[in-house]
Amino acid sequence: MQIEFSYTKNEVIQALRYHFITRREIKFMIVLVNVFAILSAVLFFTHIIRFFPFFLSTILWIVLMFAFRVFLPVSIYKKAETFQDHFKVNLDENHFYMENKKGNRIWAWREFSEFLESPYFFHLYFDKRSFFLVPKSAFSNIQQLQEARELLKKHIGK
What we know:
It is a single chain. The protein is 50% helix and 23% strand. The chain is an alpha+beta fold and 158 residues long. The chain folds into two domains: 9-79; 84-155, Pleckstrin-homology domain (PH domain)/Phosphotyrosine-binding domain (PTB) (PH-domain like). The strands form two sheets. Strands 1-2-3-4 form a four-stranded antiparallel beta sheet, with no helix packed on it. Strands 5-6-7 form a three-stranded antiparallel beta sheet, sandwiched between helices. Strand 5 (114-117) and strand 6 form a beta hairpin. Helix 1 packs across helix 3 (51-79). The longest helix has 29 residues, at 51-79.
């Protein structure tokens, strides 16, 4: 199955948010900061701590959420030239073939470690930090999208 696509900024930024939020270490950090913020609020409202520690935990929470929701996805989008290219991709039983104006590359399915599905993309991971996004909008119909989903599940798994 062959598809062609270019990326849309807002969709890519949402996919990058999804990528960050699904990482175990980031989930752990967010939970930890949320627990710290809730604990400081409880301690503040029961008059056990003063305003400053409560204020500091609130600022920490806001900065962390801003970093994962806005700063990191936008900065990665701006740095990565990949999101400005136009791609031709071929998915078959043995390989994932990708071509753009700079050249082409072919990967055997075993070179991918996992795939995730987000609202707008299939995230094809080579390892925990490097991945390729395939937009669902590139598929011409729901049947082609479902065929791609089954092919990815068969060869990469979750």
